[in-house]
User: Fold these one by one.
Assistant:
Number 1:
Amino acid sequence: IPIRNKEGQTTMYQGFNVDITSLDAMQQQLSRAERLATLGQVAAGIAHEIRNPLVGIGSTAALLRDEFDSSDEKRADLDIILNETRRLDRIVNQIIDYARPRDLMPTTWPVEGFVDEVLKLLDTRLEGQRIKIVRQCEPDLYACADRDQIKQVLLNLCHNSLDAMPTGGELRMSAGQAARVGTPGVYIEVTDTGSGISQKDLAQVFQPFFTSGKQHGTGLGLAICRNIAEAHGGDMVLTSEPGRGTTARLWLPLRPARDYAEFSA
């Protein structure tokens, strides 16, 4: 900090020993919020301009498809049009989901039962796969958050883990209490024994539209998950080792539902 004399000239500098880690994190979060606001405006325009012709293309292709026999090559071509139309619609929806502000509807719920509920939803995906499921939850553990949004996060993490274990492995979901910067909270972890993520890719996994090679991925899944965590005043961290697996940790602060008003849009 410059120290000036009466004439306004700098005569010396006063230094302070200050930890700027939290300030840097705040600046990064503010910068990301500004980018999100801009992207949200663009996404709204894109959705309006793309969805209308998509509906027309999809409806017309569906009508034409019904006029051809199942063995006709033209029907197969129309199937491709329909599938790609649906895929484009999903991409548009994900862009909007990533960019729009989130209105939270927090409630208090038992974490152990919630984890069981999420794992139950994976039953169809697990059929025919050699995946071992392990659950480790501290008893009498409660969270206060938007139940549906957190379920979306955990399902996304679980599906990512299953994608990383095409030949089988172990999917572990654990939960417990953990404080962060003096704030009490709960964590829910999803761990797999899959292919892992390189350190180069690990630094970019939360960047929108980054994908490490998924054939049908849009690169928005983890970015949306982190947005949901931050909307709750929480955080998400990924650790990984190539060839040994990945752990995704969702951390949520312990606070009454009324306190979430400051995080809602």
Number 2:
Amino acid sequence: AHMPIASYYVRAVMMLFTGAASGMIASEINKRVQNSFSQLMEKQKIINLFGQQVSREIVDELILRKDNLDIKRVNATIMFLDIRNFSSYAETKDPAEIIQFQNNIFDPLIEIISKHKGLVNQFMGDGFMASFGIPLQTDDHRQNAFNAGLEIINKIKILAEMNIIPVTRVGIGIHSGEVITGNIGNDIRKQYSIAGTTVITAARLEQLNKQFQTQFLVSRDFLNSISTNGQASESLGEVSIKGFEKPM
């Protein structure tokens, strides 16, 4: 039996339609692959810039918001943390024990910083600098930093009670204000950098813990800008800070 001419038309139209549909699907798949690839590249670029300490949430939000990472002035909170007497501890231990101690103490602390939307920007052998409200600007960066500081003090106490680390004291200094942030370097090696008097002040406050035999120091201005969540604070009066004319 011969197929009616109308059937040829129907078949031809169907083939044309499925061909067009396949083309559209292939194009859509290609577009999605391209998007995934560029997102992956964007993600890698951010991780390269901020190091492994950047949380997945921050990376995802940076990609979403496409924040401009060029040099700019922003309001943020800076935290410096130092492990007390680390040098004397390290003198009597072999390298494997030192690394184990650093991992046992720093891993949970990095988690706490990330949980409170902070970022560890720089590691020193016995401490680190962290920032809140950078690179994603938020209104609650002061409160987040303060809450993270309290949780860190508590966590170190718990780690020692569980015999995960020896009894350890730290020094934490927190200050808030204008900082200069930016993507500094050349095409081969770029680094997200933070500078300004706020950073220097936070570092100086951390160092003052040695003088006052304390573990957690903030400025009066900073304290007035947050809720202490019922945490008692003690005033140490006015203190002259190296490099600054006015006492704090």
